[in-house]
Amino acid sequence: MDAVARAGRVGLVKTIPDGLSPGSDVANMSLMGYDPAAYYSGRAPIEAASMGIKLKNTDVAFRCNLVTLKCGLMVDYSAGHIETADAHEIIAALQKELGSPTVTFYPGVSYRHITVMADFPAGKLDCTPPHDISGKEYAPTFPQARARILCELSWRRRDRFLLLVLSTSDARRRGNPRLPTSGSGGREKRLCCQA
Asked: Is pTM beyond 0.90 here?
């Protein structure tokens, strides 16, 4: 380290261009030599590429986080840092229940997954990362207007969807205090949210 310090230069670098949200995705793109102002279109396309998911020009990739919701609030943005094997069961169930020729769910790691929507309308779409609304109401953060399909996907067959997600591997979670389950009167639910 001493040699690096002696031979190196010290200074400040601005990794987040003006107008872009501060986050590791934007900063890492800058550090790798890409201009985020020209190339950044969200965290999901970067993660999709790292997972080997091929996107067509008309596809849009969304982060699909597994979260814990309770009484209208975002209780935990990571579903208690759900184990990857459990999360894969949930994503497989989501694909079976909600997947279609235009909507595909891809399993990732822990709570972080990808949803790809084919032929999604072009243009900018602002989604709220779940970690930005911890402890807050989640409904007001749903995308509006032309993104109505995201809301419909999130709530389509809502009761059946919630039961499906809870039934996949909840029995194994009951012994894990990090993962809230549906055991408290059915008020806590695990749900997929786009972000």
From this structure: no
